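User: Please run a holo structure prediction.
Assistant: Happy to. Please share the sequence and the ligand.
User: Here you go; the ligand is magnesium ion.
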Amino acid sequence: MAKDGNAALTGRRRFLQSLAGGSAAAVALSQSWTAHAQGRRAAEPDMDAGKTGFKIKRVTASSLFTRGDFDYGGVKKTMGGGGCYVEIETENGTIGTGMTAIVDTNAVAYIINSAAGRALIGMDALRNEEIWNRLYWMLSPRGQTGLAGHVMSSIDIAVWDIKGKALGVPVATLLGGARARVPVYATFGPANFTIDELVAVATAMKAQGIVNLKMVVGNGAIEARHDAAMDTIIEEDIQRVAAVRKAVGDDVNLMVDGNCGFDLPGAERLVRGIMPYRITFFEEPLAQNDVQLMAELRKRTGITLAAGQNDTLAYQYRDMILAEAVDYIQPNVMMAGGYTQVAKIAGMAQAFNIDITNAGAGALQNMHLHAGLQNGGYCEWHLPWMTFDKIIYRNMPEPVDGFLTIPDVPGLGIVPDQDAIREASKPPRRGGGGSGGD
Ligand SMILES: [Mg+2]
């Protein structure tokens, strides 16, 4: 631990010098940090990262895109998938890995490689709160949401992987170890599947013991809200939900996901059409996750709502809960600030007796959250996303009888395939918004 302010100034000078040699973006961020450092934190001593041996020496990010084989229930398709993969290496050789998605991953990788990662060199990887705080004030000093959340999330996941490896326990145990396994739901129905394909895949999932299923609704509805196509989309969605319910029977929980694709009148019409088919929850029905409109939809129809997979800051979940807009919140560690912040969001929800559920994919990262915390819930086994994970990682756990068991190994318990990562990071690649989970 530094003894006086001179050591603190030296540490910040090293940090600023590391930034100043980089790109214009890095310089701008360094100026932002300088202004902050000269203000509120000027007298704060730096931590001594050398004591633990987990001083950060490398942070690298890669924007990945893969094409994988989807093959369930006789339905065979090629699926694209993408994410930003992060590695953090410490001086003692420990490597942690992180991931984020559903964003322009090329932009996220650029921010990490040009500025955010360099700001962490020399910090203690075991001090996740200090790392999170530095990134927050560097990337989002006025509380903006957006890319900063993805950068912070992917780095924070890697930091917790290192913490688990340092202490010899799974991340789920570090978070509290509430349970050894988590129930999964399978997201099986992208909008481009025909009704016959939906039925075939849902039936195959049930045969594997997965009795919680989620399908997409509202394909392009928000763009069609001012013309007759809206009614066509809603009517087709009702038929798709009805066909799946008929095929899987009553002993399956069925969820739908609107991907923020409806206005309030359209969402209400759809809800009234699908209510007879016992919908466990309707995820993100409305554009922008509008809190007031979600509360209104819930009040008008009585439908169970869930939302928040791409939200970034804790106040967004607070507002959903206080407005009684949702029954479940869905903070995803890949987007909402990693374990460091999502554990706090989950604690806030617990004070209202509200559970969290996983949405937005990332089962391998989010299963630790839901196993670790008392009010953890379903983990999403997103079939198209898993075609990506199965290319990028080795020795993946698979659901058995509808549950994912946390691997009894330190950290995240997943092994990146470096050859596959190199191949997936080759240009040309798609890094644009929307790649990833539902
Ligand atoms: Mg979703």
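Residues 1-30, 33-43, 433-437 have pLDDT under 50 and may be disordered.
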